[in-house]
Specification:
The protein is α+β, with helices and mostly antiparallel strands. The protein has 3 helices and 4 strands. It has one domain: Glutaredoxin. Helix 1 (12-28) crosses helix 3 (69-78).
């Protein structure tokens, strides 16, 4: 199971990113643990200045804007960013 954190304060783009990741995982039949991180200090601890940010298994793979579906599927498919 992949551990996914979506970093953001709850904006529309952050919510869309969570849904996109959950939908892509479900379509692939994968189990993912998606956690929303909304605390500014926790977000900044990752060095993320532009949200939403996405962290997969402890590694920042995306910052700023909603990622496209193909990119998300790549993260889920083989584990590489």
């Amino acid at each position: 199971m992949k551990n996914v954190q979506v970093l953001g304060t709850g904006c529309a783009n952050c919510k869309a990113t969570v849904k996109l990741i959950e939908d892509a995982a479900q379509a692939r039949g994968m189990a993912v643990a998606v956690e929303k991180v909304e605390n500014i200090a926790d977000i900044m601890a990752y060095g993320v200045m532009s949200t939403p940010g996405v962290v997969i298994d402890g590694k920042v793979v995306h910052t700023g804007g909603v990622p496209d579906r193909k990119r998300v599927e790549g993260w889920l498919g083989d584990g590489s960013p």
